[in-house]
Amino acid sequence: MPEQVLPPELVVIAIAAMPVSELRGAIPLALKVYGMSPWKSYLLAVLGNLLPVPVLLLLLGRIEGYLRRRFSVFDSFFSWLFSRTRRRTGEKIARYGALGLVPFVALPLPVTGAWTGVAAAYIFGIEFRYAFPAISLGVLIAGMVVMLASMGVLSIAGV
User: Fold this and answer.
1) Alpha-carbon span 90 to 86, nearest angstrom
2) What phi-psi label fits residue 67: left (phi over 0), alpha (psi between -120 and 50 degrees) or beta?
3) Contact 49/18 with Cβ under 8 angstroms?
4) Which DSSP category does 4 fall into?
5) Is this prediction's pTM over 0.90?
6) pLDDT by residue (tens digit) across 71-84?
7) How far apart are alpha carbons 133 and 33 in whole angstroms?
8) What distance in Å separates the CA atoms of residue 28 and residue 35, rounded to the nearest whole number?
């Protein structure tokens, strides 16, 4: 077996910070592979999932503009991403604003989560001071749902 290069805690934080895995990957990894306690798993995964959120909320517009200007492939990517995000979040966000981000981020389903919540906040022009607390609350709820499902307390599809 190869030697572990990074401490398990950093691996869990890194997995939680990634756009596809987020909490859905980090919590089961922490619980089942690394044998961490439920609370340690939860806290590390929530921390990791929230780490990129303020940076993305503050810089997504600049990053998008830069990448679209420099690389044509990103023009297509952002058009696809924002179109998909509008379709999936449009009604909820248009009706409830930042509060609509909470349930969207809280449901631990494919293509929901903090990263998509940031994209939705950007697309719908929700200010940082409203978006960050709403996304954070959604992440806290999603973390609890994933932790309980990973422990067998809840039964939900896809977790």
Assistant:
1) 5
2) alpha
3) no
4) P
5) no
6) 889 888 888 878 87
7) 31
8) 10
